[in-house]
Structure formats: C-alpha cells, structure tokens
Amino acid sequence: MQAAYLTTTFFPPMGPIVQRDLHLSQLVVTGRLIAYAVFLLGGVVAGLLLARRWPVAVLPAAAVLILIGLVPEAFAPSLGMLLVGTFVTGLGGGLMVGAAFAVAARSCSPMKVMSGLAGAIVLSLVVGWVATLVLATAFSWRLAFLAALPVALLVLAGLVVGEIVVLVRRPAPAARA
Question: For 173, left (φ over 0), alpha (ψ -120 to 50), or beta?
Fold first, then answer.
C-alpha cells in the first residue's frame, strides 16, 4: 500500500515543507496532487485489466515503477524532477492496487477483497502520515521518500519469491505427440 503512504506526502506536515523548499506555488502543489490522482486512478484501471491476462507480471512491474519513481522524488532539485517521480509512483501505485485486487478477487469474494484492501489503505494512510510527520519535521522531507525505498524493495523481493514459488509448483504442460 505504498500508494497510500505516498499520498500522505502531499498533505501537512510534509506538503508545505516540500512547497517551501522547492519554492512552489499553491496552484502547482494542487496540480501535482491532481496529476498523482489521475495517474493513480489510471494505474488502478490498467492494473485491473492487465492482471486478468498477466497476473504474474503486473505486480512486480508495479513495484519496479514505484522504486523508479521514488528516486527522483527523493532527490528532486526542482518541480520537473518531482513531477517525473510523482507520475511514475502514481502509475506504479495504481497498477499495484488494481492488480492486487484482480489477483485477490480470483480466490475470494470481491466484497472480502474490497474490505481487506480498504483496511490496508486506511492503515497505510495513518502510518504514512505519522511517518512523514516524524521524518519531514525532524529530518528532511527527502528522507520520507527514501524511507519508502527499503519497503518497496522488500515488496518487490516478496513478489518475486512468491511468483517463483507459484511457477515452480505449477504442473508442467502436457507433452504434444
């Protein structure tokens, strides 16, 4: 639920700190939030559609997109680099949520999946807000993005290991005569 954690970076206390450090206007900050939301929602739709066809490939690809996007966000010297990271993490986070829903809906009822995802998102929002509060006010807003990197790496590693296990346990296709 990295997408939910990253959503907390737009709001106080971290949002105004980023705005001040990069000398951004309120209009630009609002535009960045809208762009993130558009890419996040587009990623959710894409994740739902792609995970039906390629469930094994979408989740790691989404985790890689989040990792790639976190780096420019953490080291952004200006608005341009911050927007690049915002677009990439928004798309990756949306893909992750959509694909996770599509994959989980195969084994459970959609209502159970929705309630589980909603709980995870709310928990991530609360933890994300507290983490950004502590990291951005005590140290630097950049550390809040850097702190998400190890989590994203663990998610990617877990997905890769899990998919290797699934592929190893899958029965071999029948030989053609």
Answer: beta
| Residue 109, Cβ density class (10 Å: 0-12 exposed, 13-18 middle, ≥19 buried) | exposed
Buried b (16+ CB within 10 A) or exposed e, 112-132: ebeeebeeebeebbeebbebb
Backbone angles phi, psi at 133, to 5 degrees: -60, -50
Residues in the chain: 177
The one-letter amino acid code at 134 reads: V
CA–CA dist 34, 41 (Å, integer): 11
Q: Mean pLDDT per segment of 10 residues, for the chain of length 177 residues?
A: 79 85 90 89 92 86 93 92 92 90 84 85 87 88 91 91 83 72
